[in-house]
Amino acid sequence: MEHWLTKRASLSPNAIAVETIDNGTWTFADLYDASIVFAKKLYTTSKTNKHIGILSTNSIEMIVAFFACTYLHKPVVFLNARLTQEELAIQCASADIDSVLYSDTCEALTLTLPVPCYAFSTIKQLKETNIRLDETIALDDICSMMFTSGTTGKAKAVMHTYDNHWASAIASALNLGISSTDKWLVCLPIFHIGGLSTVIKSMIYGMPILLVEKFDETIVHQAIMERNVSIVSVVAVTCSRLLNKITNETYPSTFRCMLLGGGPAPKALLDKAANYHVPIIQTYGMTETSSQIVTLNHADAIRKLGSAGKALFSAEVRVNAQRPKEVGEILVKGPMVSKGYYKQPEATERAQMDGWFRTGDLGYIDEEGFLYVVDRRSDLIISGGENIYPAEIENILLAIPGVEEAGVVGVDDAQWGKVPVAFIVTSTHVKEEELLQFCHQRLAKFKIPKHIFFTDTLPRNATNKLQRHKLMERLP
């Protein structure tokens, strides 16, 4: 089919594609022209059948570079700008990257990479090659790859075809709808699926995005209040920071919702959003599902508070359990689900079960078919034969005034096998005895943290997901 950007630039050339916080604007025609020129300049630097890496924080140059690679039919491997040089070198090798494009802000990370690296600004200075670009795409071709966020510490390169991205965008539109006044604020990193999927939605829908380099609650709050933003994607911690910015004001009528993903949302947070009349639409997805695959719709948002919703139109979800509300592994299928991990057939096979993708997450489905996400299977704590879900304990701790963040992990115990301990960040002075007393009133004895560690920050990845495996490194 015709390349999506070529088609969009033809259908609505003068419509705004990208805005930036400093009031820069690019139409779809601008974006198309810049991508074609960049592709013709990039052509001479990468003539192998391998892949191109992009290492950058959110910027218009990053978006142009991505689309330029698609016009050269070169799959893009998005590299996390928060990794070390050593981690990036491993990813370059495992994903068959033959060159890396980078923003000036990421130059230091490229100095020891084992492949040629070119700044966006360097490519812009090259002469255009006189080639005729093929402005079509094959839906089965790999469009992009990105490594799983690594919350378990084991990152793998997930392959996304054009069809995966297309199916994700259409399924999202069928659930949320598309309004002529929509403007999606992108503060999630484009090198993760939440950010990239919105850039692709923009092109398919003809919808403007407001691009933010990285999440900052002051900047995002001001943009919601003043820039006609209709949707913003958040995770629990960034949602909480935004809600803390609200004083006596309310969001403008143009604001439709916060799309909240990245793991189970604490009930205290959802209640707080409801009190502020901030529409929260919970969603569930992952890199392997090309972003959301289960989402709560507007009509059920209040009635099913805490649920991630139902599978999107072209998707299916079930839980590997025998009865409603019984916790089991969440399984999904649909055209947005990745075919697997690049050059890792064993990992790809382990992730499959009779045509379903094994998410590794735990949850349950109620009598009406609504999914509730409980926790990651890898984070499950088994103590004396009892299952303990860290997210449940974290939700209780987050309901305590003064507790801003909480993370729970299991540690070895001679009597019980594992017992939970908690790490918390507080905004006011809170004593450990007060926290434990609060837990005693609301949790079974075996779920109460055996120790609480106070810390200034919790380890999070670039999308602000809690990295519990890194909490283990902080144990005394």
Automatic annotation (TrEMBL):
<dbReference type="GO" id="GO:0008756">
    <property type="term" value="F:o-succinylbenzoate-CoA ligase activity"/>
</dbReference>
<keyword id="KW-0547">Nucleotide-binding</keyword>
<keyword id="KW-0067">ATP-binding</keyword>
<dbReference type="InterPro" id="IPR010192">
    <property type="entry name" value="MenE"/>
</dbReference>
<dbReference type="InterPro" id="IPR020845">
    <property type="entry name" value="AMP-binding_CS"/>
</dbReference>
<comment type="pathway">
    <text>Quinol/quinone metabolism; 1,4-dihydroxy-2-naphthoate biosynthesis; 1,4-dihydroxy-2-naphthoate from chorismate: step 5/7.</text>
</comment>
<feature type="domain" description="AMP-binding enzyme C-terminal">
    <location>
        <begin position="392"/>
        <end position="465"/>
    </location>
</feature>
<feature type="domain" description="AMP-dependent synthetase/ligase">
    <location>
        <begin position="7"/>
        <end position="342"/>
    </location>
</feature>
<comment type="pathway">
    <text>Quinol/quinone metabolism; menaquinone biosynthesis.</text>
</comment>
<dbReference type="InterPro" id="IPR045851">
    <property type="entry name" value="AMP-bd_C_sf"/>
</dbReference>
<keyword id="KW-0474">Menaquinone biosynthesis</keyword>
<dbReference type="Pfam" id="PF00501">
    <property type="entry name" value="AMP-binding"/>
</dbReference>
<comment type="function">
    <text>Converts 2-succinylbenzoate (OSB) to 2-succinylbenzoyl-CoA (OSB-CoA).</text>
</comment>
<keyword id="KW-0436">Ligase</keyword>
<dbReference type="InterPro" id="IPR000873">
    <property type="entry name" value="AMP-dep_synth/lig_dom"/>
</dbReference>
<dbReference type="InterPro" id="IPR025110">
    <property type="entry name" value="AMP-bd_C"/>
</dbReference>
<comment type="similarity">
    <text>Belongs to the ATP-dependent AMP-binding enzyme family. MenE subfamily.</text>
</comment>
<dbReference type="InterPro" id="IPR042099">
    <property type="entry name" value="ANL_N_sf"/>
</dbReference>
<dbReference type="Pfam" id="PF13193">
    <property type="entry name" value="AMP-binding_C"/>
</dbReference>
<protein>
    <recommendedName>
        <fullName>2-succinylbenzoate--CoA ligase</fullName>
        <ecNumber>6.2.1.26</ecNumber>
    </recommendedName>
</protein>
